[in-house]
Please model this.
Amino acid sequence: MAKRSVAPAVRSARRSLIFLLAIIVGLTGLITLGVYRSDATWTPKLALDLQGGTQILLAANQNDGKAVTGEQLDQAVSILRQRVNASGVSEAEITTQGSNHISVAIPGKVDDETLQRIQASAALDFRGVFVEAPATAGVVPENGESIEGADGEAPADAEAPAAGEAPAADTGDAEAAPAGDADAEADPAAAGDRYPDPLPTDPADQAWLTPALLEDFAAFTCTSDSALEVANAPADKPLITCDETGMLKYIVGPVELTGDVITDAVAQQQSIQGGGGTTGLWEVAITMNKQGAKEFGKVSTRLFGQQPPLNQFAFVLDGKVLSAPTMNAQILDGRPAISGNFTKESSQVLADQLKFGALPMSFTVQSQEDISSTLGSNQLIGGLIAGLIGLALVVVYSLFQYRLLGTLTIASLGVAAILTYLLLTFFSWRQGYRLSLAGVAGIIVAIGFTADSFIVYFERIRDQLRDGFGITAAVEGGWKRALRTILASDGVNLLAAVVLFVLAVGNVKGFAFTLGLTTIVDVIVVALFTHPMMTLLARTKVYSGGYRFSGLDPRQLGAVYQGRARFQEPVAATKSSAKKVAKSRGEAERRQTIAERKAAETAGAGKEG
Model:
Protein backbone atom coordinates (compact mmCIF):
# COMPACT_ATOMS: atom_id res chain seq x y z
CA MET A 1 0.00 0.00 0.00
CA ALA A 2 1.43 3.35 -1.06
CA LYS A 3 2.23 5.87 1.67
CA ARG A 4 -0.10 8.85 1.62
CA SER A 5 1.72 12.16 1.09
CA VAL A 6 0.99 15.26 3.16
CA ALA A 7 0.61 18.60 1.41
CA PRO A 8 3.20 21.30 2.34
CA ALA A 9 0.38 23.60 3.49
CA VAL A 10 -0.81 20.96 5.93
CA ARG A 11 2.69 20.42 7.31
CA SER A 12 3.13 24.19 7.74
CA ALA A 13 -0.24 24.44 9.52
CA ARG A 14 0.68 21.64 11.92
CA ARG A 15 4.06 23.28 12.71
CA SER A 16 2.32 26.59 13.45
CA LEU A 17 -0.12 24.95 15.84
CA ILE A 18 2.70 23.09 17.60
CA PHE A 19 4.66 26.34 17.96
CA LEU A 20 1.63 28.09 19.45
CA LEU A 21 1.12 25.21 21.86
CA ALA A 22 4.79 25.47 22.87
CA ILE A 23 4.34 29.19 23.66
CA ILE A 24 1.32 28.49 25.86
CA VAL A 25 2.99 25.57 27.64
CA GLY A 26 6.19 27.60 28.10
CA LEU A 27 4.38 30.54 29.68
CA THR A 28 2.41 28.19 31.92
CA GLY A 29 5.60 26.44 32.98
CA LEU A 30 7.39 29.71 33.81
CA ILE A 31 4.47 30.94 35.90
CA THR A 32 4.23 27.57 37.68
CA LEU A 33 7.93 27.75 38.47
CA GLY A 34 7.47 31.28 39.77
CA VAL A 35 4.55 30.26 41.99
CA TYR A 36 6.56 27.55 43.73
CA ARG A 37 9.98 29.24 43.80
CA SER A 38 9.21 32.96 43.78
CA ASP A 39 6.40 35.40 44.48
CA ALA A 40 4.41 34.75 41.31
CA THR A 41 0.65 34.21 41.44
CA TRP A 42 -1.85 32.56 39.12
CA THR A 43 -3.72 35.83 38.63
CA PRO A 44 -2.50 39.27 37.53
CA LYS A 45 -1.94 41.76 40.32
CA LEU A 46 -4.59 44.46 40.60
CA ALA A 47 -4.02 48.20 40.59
CA LEU A 48 -5.09 50.79 43.11
CA ASP A 49 -8.56 51.32 41.66
CA LEU A 50 -9.42 47.61 41.88
CA GLN A 51 -7.50 46.39 44.90
CA GLY A 52 -6.90 49.38 47.12
CA GLY A 53 -3.56 49.94 48.79
CA THR A 54 -1.61 52.30 51.02
CA GLN A 55 -1.69 56.08 51.01
CA ILE A 56 1.25 58.00 52.45
CA LEU A 57 1.15 61.75 53.06
CA LEU A 58 4.59 63.35 53.03
CA ALA A 59 5.49 66.81 54.30
CA ALA A 60 8.46 68.49 52.64
CA ASN A 61 10.91 70.12 55.02
CA GLN A 62 13.52 72.60 53.85
CA ASN A 63 16.88 72.01 55.47
CA ASP A 64 17.82 75.68 55.17
CA GLY A 65 14.57 76.97 56.63
CA LYS A 66 13.32 78.49 53.36
CA ALA A 67 9.89 77.81 51.93
CA VAL A 68 9.44 74.98 49.44
CA THR A 69 8.75 76.27 45.92
CA GLY A 70 6.24 74.74 43.52
CA GLU A 71 9.06 73.96 41.10
CA GLN A 72 10.91 71.96 43.74
CA LEU A 73 7.74 70.13 44.73
CA ASP A 74 7.02 69.13 41.11
CA GLN A 75 10.58 67.86 40.75
CA ALA A 76 10.15 65.86 43.97
CA VAL A 77 7.01 64.23 42.52
CA SER A 78 8.98 63.24 39.40
CA ILE A 79 11.80 61.74 41.47
CA LEU A 80 9.41 59.89 43.76
CA ARG A 81 7.56 58.44 40.78
CA GLN A 82 10.85 57.10 39.40
CA ARG A 83 11.73 55.60 42.77
CA VAL A 84 8.38 53.90 43.24
CA ASN A 85 8.35 52.49 39.71
CA ALA A 86 11.91 51.25 40.18
CA SER A 87 10.65 48.91 42.89
CA GLY A 88 8.47 47.12 40.35
CA VAL A 89 5.22 48.82 41.41
CA SER A 90 2.99 50.14 38.65
CA GLU A 91 -0.14 52.32 38.58
CA ALA A 92 1.00 54.31 41.64
CA GLU A 93 -0.58 57.75 42.09
CA ILE A 94 1.78 60.52 43.23
CA THR A 95 0.39 64.04 43.45
CA THR A 96 1.02 67.31 45.25
CA GLN A 97 -1.32 68.57 47.95
CA GLY A 98 -1.16 72.19 48.94
CA SER A 99 2.12 74.06 48.99
CA ASN A 100 4.36 71.53 50.76
CA HIS A 101 2.68 68.11 50.82
CA ILE A 102 2.94 65.10 48.51
CA SER A 103 0.46 62.22 48.47
CA VAL A 104 1.73 58.79 47.46
CA ALA A 105 -0.85 56.04 46.86
CA ILE A 106 0.58 52.58 46.14
CA PRO A 107 -1.36 49.39 45.35
CA GLY A 108 -1.21 46.72 48.03
CA LYS A 109 1.00 46.80 51.10
CA VAL A 110 4.13 48.94 51.16
CA ASP A 111 7.32 47.12 52.16
CA ASP A 112 10.04 48.77 54.26
CA GLU A 113 12.43 49.23 51.32
CA THR A 114 9.85 51.12 49.27
CA LEU A 115 8.98 53.28 52.27
CA GLN A 116 12.65 54.15 52.79
CA ARG A 117 13.01 55.14 49.15
CA ILE A 118 9.96 57.36 49.42
CA GLN A 119 11.11 59.12 52.59
CA ALA A 120 14.73 59.65 51.53
CA SER A 121 15.59 63.00 49.98
CA ALA A 122 17.00 62.90 46.46
CA ALA A 123 20.78 62.60 46.79
CA LEU A 124 23.00 64.22 44.16
CA ASP A 125 26.66 63.46 44.79
CA PHE A 126 29.94 64.26 43.05
CA ARG A 127 32.38 61.36 42.92
CA GLY A 128 35.67 60.75 41.14
CA VAL A 129 35.78 57.94 38.56
CA PHE A 130 38.10 54.98 39.15
CA VAL A 131 36.94 52.57 36.42
CA GLU A 132 34.63 52.89 33.41
CA ALA A 133 33.61 49.99 31.14
CA PRO A 134 30.80 49.05 28.74
CA ALA A 135 27.92 47.37 30.53
CA THR A 136 27.21 45.11 27.55
CA ALA A 137 29.84 43.25 25.56
CA GLY A 138 30.36 44.72 22.12
CA VAL A 139 28.62 48.02 22.94
CA VAL A 140 31.01 50.96 23.31
CA PRO A 141 28.99 54.20 23.47
CA GLU A 142 30.68 57.51 22.89
CA ASN A 143 31.42 59.61 25.93
CA GLY A 144 32.23 63.05 24.61
CA GLU A 145 31.35 65.16 27.65
CA SER A 146 33.93 67.34 29.37
CA ILE A 147 34.14 69.99 32.07
CA GLU A 148 35.69 73.33 31.30
CA GLY A 149 35.75 76.71 32.94
CA ALA A 150 32.97 79.18 32.34
CA ASP A 151 35.10 80.92 29.69
CA GLY A 152 35.86 77.64 27.92
CA GLU A 153 39.63 78.00 28.30
CA ALA A 154 42.05 75.41 29.70
CA PRO A 155 45.63 75.87 30.90
CA ALA A 156 48.35 75.05 28.45
CA ASP A 157 50.35 72.72 30.72
CA ALA A 158 47.88 69.87 30.37
CA GLU A 159 50.55 67.20 30.75
CA ALA A 160 51.94 68.48 34.02
CA PRO A 161 51.06 66.52 37.16
CA ALA A 162 48.10 68.03 38.93
CA ALA A 163 48.82 69.83 42.14
CA GLY A 164 47.63 68.04 45.22
CA GLU A 165 47.38 64.71 43.42
CA ALA A 166 47.19 61.77 45.77
CA PRO A 167 49.93 59.17 45.24
CA ALA A 168 48.75 55.84 43.94
CA ALA A 169 48.82 53.12 46.55
CA ASP A 170 50.38 49.73 45.94
CA THR A 171 47.43 47.56 44.97
CA GLY A 172 49.25 44.92 42.96
CA ASP A 173 47.37 43.38 40.07
CA ALA A 174 44.16 45.15 40.95
CA GLU A 175 45.69 48.54 40.10
CA ALA A 176 47.21 47.41 36.83
CA ALA A 177 44.26 45.39 35.59
CA PRO A 178 42.14 47.07 32.89
CA ALA A 179 38.47 47.48 33.66
CA GLY A 180 37.43 44.89 31.12
CA ASP A 181 39.80 42.24 32.58
CA ALA A 182 38.91 42.74 36.19
CA ASP A 183 37.19 39.40 36.45
CA ALA A 184 40.24 37.62 35.05
CA GLU A 185 42.65 39.31 37.47
CA ALA A 186 40.59 38.95 40.62
CA ASP A 187 40.97 35.63 42.37
CA PRO A 188 37.77 34.63 44.21
CA ALA A 189 39.65 32.59 46.77
CA ALA A 190 41.90 35.52 47.67
CA ALA A 191 39.33 38.27 47.23
CA GLY A 192 39.00 39.08 50.90
CA ASP A 193 37.00 42.11 51.97
CA ARG A 194 35.49 44.49 49.48
CA TYR A 195 37.16 47.53 51.09
CA PRO A 196 40.74 47.87 52.36
CA ASP A 197 41.54 47.81 56.05
CA PRO A 198 42.21 50.43 57.26
CA LEU A 199 40.06 52.63 55.01
CA PRO A 200 42.01 55.28 53.07
CA THR A 201 41.40 58.86 54.12
CA ASP A 202 41.82 60.22 50.58
CA PRO A 203 38.75 59.67 48.33
CA ALA A 204 41.07 59.53 45.30
CA ASP A 205 43.38 56.88 46.76
CA GLN A 206 43.47 53.89 44.41
CA ALA A 207 43.94 51.63 47.40
CA TRP A 208 40.13 51.49 47.30
CA LEU A 209 40.41 49.20 44.26
CA THR A 210 40.75 45.90 46.09
CA PRO A 211 40.60 42.59 44.21
CA ALA A 212 37.19 41.93 45.79
CA LEU A 213 35.82 45.27 44.56
CA LEU A 214 37.09 44.63 41.04
CA GLU A 215 35.60 41.14 41.11
CA ASP A 216 32.22 42.58 42.11
CA PHE A 217 32.52 45.14 39.33
CA ALA A 218 33.20 42.45 36.74
CA ALA A 219 30.09 40.54 37.83
CA PHE A 220 27.89 43.64 38.08
CA THR A 221 25.13 44.08 35.48
CA CYS A 222 22.96 47.12 34.81
CA THR A 223 19.69 45.40 35.65
CA SER A 224 16.80 46.74 37.66
CA ASP A 225 17.72 44.53 40.62
CA SER A 226 21.28 45.86 40.65
CA ALA A 227 19.99 49.42 40.33
CA LEU A 228 18.01 49.04 43.53
CA GLU A 229 21.15 48.05 45.43
CA VAL A 230 23.08 51.22 44.62
CA ALA A 231 20.44 53.82 45.55
CA ASN A 232 21.38 53.77 49.25
CA ALA A 233 25.15 53.38 48.81
CA PRO A 234 27.37 54.69 51.65
CA ALA A 235 28.81 58.12 50.97
CA ASP A 236 32.22 57.34 52.45
CA LYS A 237 32.95 54.30 50.25
CA PRO A 238 33.27 53.59 46.51
CA LEU A 239 30.18 52.74 44.51
CA ILE A 240 29.63 50.31 41.63
CA THR A 241 26.86 51.64 39.43
CA CYS A 242 25.71 52.41 35.87
CA ASP A 243 24.72 55.44 33.87
CA GLU A 244 21.06 56.20 33.19
CA THR A 245 21.12 54.46 29.80
CA GLY A 246 22.47 51.22 31.28
CA MET A 247 25.23 51.12 28.65
CA LEU A 248 28.18 52.04 30.89
CA LYS A 249 29.14 50.88 34.35
CA TYR A 250 31.50 52.57 36.78
CA ILE A 251 33.48 52.31 39.95
CA VAL A 252 33.26 55.78 41.47
CA GLY A 253 35.01 56.91 44.60
CA PRO A 254 33.55 58.23 47.85
CA VAL A 255 31.46 61.39 47.80
CA GLU A 256 33.59 64.53 47.49
CA LEU A 257 30.81 67.07 47.04
CA THR A 258 27.05 67.02 47.53
CA GLY A 259 24.49 68.53 45.23
CA ASP A 260 23.46 71.28 47.62
CA VAL A 261 26.54 73.29 46.58
CA ILE A 262 24.84 73.96 43.20
CA THR A 263 22.94 77.23 43.23
CA ASP A 264 21.98 77.21 39.56
CA ALA A 265 22.31 75.14 36.38
CA VAL A 266 21.17 76.33 32.97
CA ALA A 267 21.26 74.99 29.42
CA GLN A 268 22.82 77.45 27.00
CA GLN A 269 24.75 77.68 23.75
CA GLN A 270 28.52 77.82 23.97
CA SER A 271 30.02 81.25 23.50
CA ILE A 272 32.82 81.80 21.02
CA GLN A 273 36.09 82.53 22.81
CA GLY A 274 36.82 86.22 22.68
CA GLY A 275 33.15 87.14 22.41
CA GLY A 276 30.96 87.73 19.42
CA GLY A 277 28.24 85.08 19.13
CA THR A 278 27.82 81.42 19.88
CA THR A 279 29.12 78.18 18.39
CA GLY A 280 25.66 76.64 18.07
CA LEU A 281 26.65 73.79 20.44
CA TRP A 282 24.81 73.30 23.70
CA GLU A 283 26.30 73.06 27.19
CA VAL A 284 25.19 73.04 30.81
CA ALA A 285 26.57 75.94 32.86
CA ILE A 286 26.73 75.35 36.62
CA THR A 287 27.04 77.92 39.39
CA MET A 288 28.23 76.82 42.86
CA ASN A 289 28.20 78.54 46.21
CA LYS A 290 31.38 79.74 47.88
CA GLN A 291 32.11 76.49 49.71
CA GLY A 292 31.36 74.45 46.60
CA ALA A 293 33.66 76.60 44.46
CA LYS A 294 36.50 76.05 46.92
CA GLU A 295 36.09 72.27 47.08
CA PHE A 296 35.47 71.90 43.35
CA GLY A 297 38.62 73.90 42.69
CA LYS A 298 40.64 71.31 44.62
CA VAL A 299 38.97 68.46 42.76
CA SER A 300 39.50 70.03 39.31
CA THR A 301 43.17 70.68 40.15
CA ARG A 302 43.65 67.03 41.07
CA LEU A 303 41.80 65.56 38.10
CA PHE A 304 43.11 67.84 35.36
CA GLY A 305 45.93 66.15 33.45
CA GLN A 306 45.19 62.63 34.68
CA GLN A 307 44.83 59.70 32.31
CA PRO A 308 41.28 58.49 31.53
CA PRO A 309 39.17 57.55 33.36
CA LEU A 310 40.93 59.08 36.37
CA ASN A 311 40.33 62.55 34.89
CA GLN A 312 36.54 62.11 35.00
CA PHE A 313 34.15 63.42 37.62
CA ALA A 314 30.75 61.74 37.99
CA PHE A 315 27.46 63.43 38.86
CA VAL A 316 25.48 60.71 40.67
CA LEU A 317 21.74 61.05 41.36
CA ASP A 318 20.10 58.38 43.52
CA GLY A 319 23.00 56.03 42.80
CA LYS A 320 22.86 56.50 39.00
CA VAL A 321 25.53 58.34 37.01
CA LEU A 322 23.91 61.28 35.24
CA SER A 323 27.12 62.34 33.55
CA ALA A 324 30.82 61.58 33.93
CA PRO A 325 32.65 64.27 31.94
CA THR A 326 36.41 64.68 31.74
CA MET A 327 38.08 67.60 33.53
CA ASN A 328 39.56 69.89 30.87
CA ALA A 329 40.59 72.78 33.12
CA GLN A 330 41.40 73.89 36.62
CA ILE A 331 38.19 75.62 37.70
CA LEU A 332 38.57 77.82 40.75
CA ASP A 333 35.60 80.18 40.41
CA GLY A 334 32.86 77.56 40.93
CA ARG A 335 31.44 78.03 37.43
CA PRO A 336 32.10 74.80 35.48
CA ALA A 337 30.42 74.12 32.15
CA ILE A 338 29.64 70.63 30.87
CA SER A 339 29.92 70.32 27.10
CA GLY A 340 29.57 67.37 24.75
CA ASN A 341 27.13 65.84 22.28
CA PHE A 342 24.17 67.75 23.67
CA THR A 343 20.96 68.81 22.02
CA LYS A 344 18.80 71.61 23.38
CA GLU A 345 16.49 69.07 25.00
CA SER A 346 19.17 66.82 26.51
CA SER A 347 21.10 69.78 27.92
CA GLN A 348 17.92 71.11 29.53
CA VAL A 349 17.17 67.70 31.08
CA LEU A 350 20.67 67.51 32.60
CA ALA A 351 20.42 71.10 33.83
CA ASP A 352 17.13 70.34 35.58
CA GLN A 353 18.55 67.18 37.12
CA LEU A 354 21.58 69.04 38.46
CA LYS A 355 19.54 72.01 39.65
CA PHE A 356 16.75 70.10 41.34
CA GLY A 357 18.25 66.60 41.68
CA ALA A 358 19.51 67.27 45.16
CA LEU A 359 16.46 68.90 46.67
CA PRO A 360 17.40 70.81 49.84
CA MET A 361 14.51 69.11 51.60
CA SER A 362 13.63 65.98 53.43
CA PHE A 363 10.25 64.29 53.84
CA THR A 364 8.35 63.54 57.02
CA VAL A 365 5.59 60.92 56.94
CA GLN A 366 2.54 62.65 58.37
CA SER A 367 0.12 59.79 57.83
CA GLN A 368 0.04 56.28 56.45
CA GLU A 369 -3.23 54.44 56.04
CA ASP A 370 -4.85 51.67 54.09
CA ILE A 371 -7.32 52.76 51.44
CA SER A 372 -10.06 50.80 49.74
CA SER A 373 -10.38 50.52 45.99
CA THR A 374 -11.63 53.74 44.44
CA LEU A 375 -13.95 51.94 42.06
CA GLY A 376 -14.77 48.84 44.00
CA SER A 377 -15.85 45.36 43.02
CA ASN A 378 -19.22 46.55 41.70
CA GLN A 379 -17.60 48.65 39.01
CA LEU A 380 -15.22 45.82 38.13
CA ILE A 381 -18.14 43.38 37.82
CA GLY A 382 -19.97 45.93 35.68
CA GLY A 383 -16.97 46.28 33.40
CA LEU A 384 -16.61 42.52 33.06
CA ILE A 385 -20.32 42.18 32.29
CA ALA A 386 -19.97 44.80 29.57
CA GLY A 387 -17.07 42.85 28.13
CA LEU A 388 -19.04 39.60 28.20
CA ILE A 389 -21.97 41.29 26.45
CA GLY A 390 -19.66 42.57 23.74
CA LEU A 391 -18.11 39.12 23.39
CA ALA A 392 -21.56 37.53 23.16
CA LEU A 393 -22.58 39.94 20.41
CA VAL A 394 -19.43 39.09 18.46
CA VAL A 395 -20.21 35.37 18.82
CA VAL A 396 -23.82 35.81 17.70
CA TYR A 397 -22.77 37.89 14.70
CA SER A 398 -20.09 35.34 13.72
CA LEU A 399 -22.53 32.43 13.86
CA PHE A 400 -25.20 34.36 11.95
CA GLN A 401 -22.86 35.62 9.25
CA TYR A 402 -20.52 32.64 8.90
CA ARG A 403 -22.58 29.72 10.22
CA LEU A 404 -20.31 26.84 11.20
CA LEU A 405 -17.24 28.86 10.19
CA GLY A 406 -18.09 31.21 13.09
CA THR A 407 -16.98 28.50 15.54
CA LEU A 408 -13.42 29.14 14.34
CA THR A 409 -13.85 32.77 15.38
CA ILE A 410 -15.00 31.66 18.84
CA ALA A 411 -12.09 29.24 19.19
CA SER A 412 -9.62 31.95 18.09
CA LEU A 413 -11.01 34.40 20.63
CA GLY A 414 -10.61 31.69 23.28
CA VAL A 415 -6.96 31.16 22.38
CA ALA A 416 -6.39 34.93 22.39
CA ALA A 417 -7.94 35.15 25.86
CA ILE A 418 -5.66 32.39 27.18
CA LEU A 419 -2.54 34.03 25.73
CA THR A 420 -3.51 37.47 27.05
CA TYR A 421 -4.19 36.11 30.54
CA LEU A 422 -0.88 34.26 30.70
CA LEU A 423 1.08 37.27 29.44
CA LEU A 424 -0.58 39.63 31.92
CA THR A 425 0.15 37.20 34.75
CA PHE A 426 3.77 36.84 33.61
CA PHE A 427 4.34 40.61 33.34
CA SER A 428 2.65 41.09 36.70
CA TRP A 429 5.24 38.75 38.19
CA ARG A 430 8.36 39.83 36.33
CA GLN A 431 7.72 43.52 35.56
CA GLY A 432 5.42 44.56 38.39
CA TYR A 433 2.48 45.21 36.08
CA ARG A 434 -0.88 45.80 37.75
CA LEU A 435 -4.24 45.49 36.03
CA SER A 436 -6.50 48.52 36.41
CA LEU A 437 -10.00 49.16 35.16
CA ALA A 438 -8.47 51.17 32.32
CA GLY A 439 -6.46 48.06 31.42
CA VAL A 440 -9.66 46.01 31.44
CA ALA A 441 -11.13 48.58 29.03
CA GLY A 442 -8.16 48.07 26.73
CA ILE A 443 -8.81 44.33 26.68
CA ILE A 444 -12.52 44.84 25.92
CA VAL A 445 -11.71 47.20 23.04
CA ALA A 446 -9.30 44.59 21.68
CA ILE A 447 -12.15 42.06 21.27
CA GLY A 448 -13.44 44.10 18.35
CA PHE A 449 -9.97 44.43 16.80
CA THR A 450 -9.39 40.70 17.05
CA ALA A 451 -12.78 39.77 15.59
CA ASP A 452 -12.18 42.25 12.76
CA SER A 453 -9.06 40.33 11.74
CA PHE A 454 -11.04 37.09 11.43
CA ILE A 455 -13.75 38.82 9.39
CA VAL A 456 -11.18 40.23 6.98
CA TYR A 457 -9.66 36.78 6.52
CA PHE A 458 -12.99 35.00 5.94
CA GLU A 459 -14.20 37.61 3.46
CA ARG A 460 -10.98 37.31 1.48
CA ILE A 461 -11.56 33.55 1.26
CA ARG A 462 -15.08 34.14 0.01
CA ASP A 463 -13.80 36.60 -2.59
CA GLN A 464 -11.40 33.96 -3.87
CA LEU A 465 -14.22 31.41 -4.09
CA ARG A 466 -16.37 33.87 -6.03
CA ASP A 467 -13.50 34.27 -8.49
CA GLY A 468 -13.62 30.54 -9.21
CA PHE A 469 -10.73 29.24 -7.10
CA GLY A 470 -10.91 25.90 -5.32
CA ILE A 471 -11.38 25.84 -1.58
CA THR A 472 -7.73 25.07 -0.72
CA ALA A 473 -6.43 27.65 -3.17
CA ALA A 474 -8.97 30.17 -1.85
CA VAL A 475 -7.72 29.67 1.71
CA GLU A 476 -4.09 30.32 0.72
CA GLY A 477 -4.91 33.18 -1.63
CA GLY A 478 -7.26 34.76 0.87
CA TRP A 479 -4.62 34.54 3.58
CA LYS A 480 -2.01 36.36 1.48
CA ARG A 481 -4.45 39.16 0.75
CA ALA A 482 -5.83 39.35 4.27
CA LEU A 483 -2.43 39.32 5.98
CA ARG A 484 -1.43 42.65 4.47
CA THR A 485 -4.67 44.26 5.69
CA ILE A 486 -4.39 42.72 9.15
CA LEU A 487 -0.78 43.83 9.60
CA ALA A 488 -1.58 47.35 8.44
CA SER A 489 -4.54 47.65 10.82
CA ASP A 490 -2.72 46.15 13.80
CA GLY A 491 0.37 48.22 13.01
CA VAL A 492 -1.63 51.43 13.36
CA ASN A 493 -3.18 50.19 16.63
CA LEU A 494 0.21 49.22 18.01
CA LEU A 495 1.77 52.55 17.05
CA ALA A 496 -1.05 54.43 18.78
CA ALA A 497 -0.64 52.25 21.89
CA VAL A 498 3.13 52.84 22.02
CA VAL A 499 2.78 56.62 21.67
CA LEU A 500 0.08 56.67 24.34
CA PHE A 501 2.19 54.51 26.66
CA VAL A 502 5.24 56.76 26.30
CA LEU A 503 3.39 60.05 26.77
CA ALA A 504 0.76 59.08 29.34
CA VAL A 505 0.97 58.39 33.07
CA GLY A 506 -1.14 56.47 35.55
CA ASN A 507 -4.19 54.54 34.41
CA VAL A 508 -3.93 55.75 30.82
CA LYS A 509 -0.57 54.01 30.60
CA GLY A 510 -2.27 50.78 31.75
CA PHE A 511 -4.87 51.14 29.00
CA ALA A 512 -2.12 51.65 26.40
CA PHE A 513 -0.21 48.61 27.68
CA THR A 514 -3.12 46.18 27.40
CA LEU A 515 -4.15 47.64 24.04
CA GLY A 516 -0.66 47.11 22.62
CA LEU A 517 -0.33 43.65 24.18
CA THR A 518 -3.65 42.42 22.79
CA THR A 519 -2.77 43.82 19.37
CA ILE A 520 0.37 41.68 19.30
CA VAL A 521 -1.64 38.70 20.56
CA ASP A 522 -4.09 39.24 17.69
CA VAL A 523 -1.34 38.85 15.09
CA ILE A 524 0.01 35.75 16.85
CA VAL A 525 -3.40 34.05 17.05
CA VAL A 526 -4.39 34.81 13.45
CA ALA A 527 -1.02 33.62 12.11
CA LEU A 528 -0.50 30.59 14.37
CA PHE A 529 -4.05 29.40 14.98
CA THR A 530 -6.79 30.82 12.74
CA HIS A 531 -5.03 30.36 9.41
CA PRO A 532 -3.56 26.92 10.22
CA MET A 533 -6.95 25.69 11.44
CA MET A 534 -8.64 27.05 8.31
CA THR A 535 -6.05 25.23 6.20
CA LEU A 536 -6.90 21.95 7.92
CA LEU A 537 -10.67 22.52 7.89
CA ALA A 538 -10.63 23.24 4.15
CA ARG A 539 -9.68 19.61 3.59
CA THR A 540 -12.62 18.23 5.53
CA LYS A 541 -15.82 17.05 3.82
CA VAL A 542 -18.01 19.71 5.43
CA TYR A 543 -16.05 22.67 4.07
CA SER A 544 -14.69 21.21 0.84
CA GLY A 545 -18.19 20.13 -0.17
CA GLY A 546 -19.68 23.55 0.51
CA TYR A 547 -22.48 22.30 2.71
CA ARG A 548 -25.31 24.65 3.61
CA PHE A 549 -24.24 25.64 7.11
CA SER A 550 -20.49 25.58 6.54
CA GLY A 551 -20.24 29.32 5.91
CA LEU A 552 -19.10 28.61 2.34
CA ASP A 553 -22.59 27.98 0.94
CA PRO A 554 -22.67 28.56 -2.85
CA ARG A 555 -26.11 30.20 -2.61
CA GLN A 556 -24.57 32.84 -0.34
CA LEU A 557 -21.44 33.31 -2.40
CA GLY A 558 -23.11 33.66 -5.81
CA ALA A 559 -21.26 30.66 -7.27
CA VAL A 560 -22.05 26.96 -7.62
CA TYR A 561 -19.51 24.21 -7.25
CA GLN A 562 -19.53 20.46 -6.79
CA GLY A 563 -17.20 18.13 -4.97
CA ARG A 564 -13.80 19.69 -4.40
CA ALA A 565 -14.62 23.07 -5.97
CA ARG A 566 -15.37 22.05 -9.60
CA PHE A 567 -17.25 25.17 -10.65
CA GLN A 568 -20.00 25.13 -13.29
CA GLU A 569 -22.73 27.44 -14.52
CA PRO A 570 -25.97 27.44 -12.51
CA VAL A 571 -28.40 24.83 -13.86
CA ALA A 572 -31.50 26.77 -12.96
CA ALA A 573 -31.96 30.48 -12.90
CA THR A 574 -34.29 32.24 -10.56
CA LYS A 575 -37.07 34.54 -11.78
CA SER A 576 -35.12 37.63 -10.88
CA SER A 577 -32.02 36.46 -12.72
CA ALA A 578 -34.13 35.49 -15.78
CA LYS A 579 -35.65 38.97 -15.87
CA LYS A 580 -32.17 40.50 -15.71
CA VAL A 581 -31.01 38.33 -18.63
CA ALA A 582 -34.07 39.23 -20.73
CA LYS A 583 -33.62 42.89 -19.95
CA SER A 584 -29.96 42.84 -20.97
CA ARG A 585 -30.80 41.06 -24.23
CA GLY A 586 -33.48 43.61 -25.05
CA GLU A 587 -31.07 46.45 -24.39
CA ALA A 588 -28.51 44.84 -26.70
CA GLU A 589 -31.08 44.44 -29.46
CA ARG A 590 -32.13 48.09 -29.22
CA ARG A 591 -28.54 49.19 -29.58
CA GLN A 592 -28.04 47.31 -32.87
CA THR A 593 -27.65 49.52 -35.93
CA ILE A 594 -29.86 49.20 -39.05
CA ALA A 595 -26.92 47.85 -41.05
CA GLU A 596 -26.34 45.14 -38.46
CA ARG A 597 -29.99 44.06 -38.59
CA LYS A 598 -29.97 44.00 -42.42
CA ALA A 599 -26.78 41.95 -42.40
CA ALA A 600 -28.37 39.51 -40.03
CA GLU A 601 -31.53 39.25 -42.22
CA THR A 602 -29.43 38.72 -45.37
CA ALA A 603 -27.46 36.00 -43.68
CA GLY A 604 -30.68 34.31 -42.62
CA ALA A 605 -32.15 34.48 -46.17
CA GLY A 606 -29.00 32.97 -47.63
CA LYS A 607 -29.30 30.01 -45.30
CA GLU A 608 -32.94 29.44 -46.34
CA GLY A 609 -32.03 29.52 -50.04
About this structure: DSSP finds 19 helices and 18 strands in the chain. The first strand starts at residue 45 and ends at 46. The CA atoms of residues 149 and 336 lie 5 Å apart. Residues 137-142, 152-192, 559-573 have pLDDT under 50 and may be disordered.
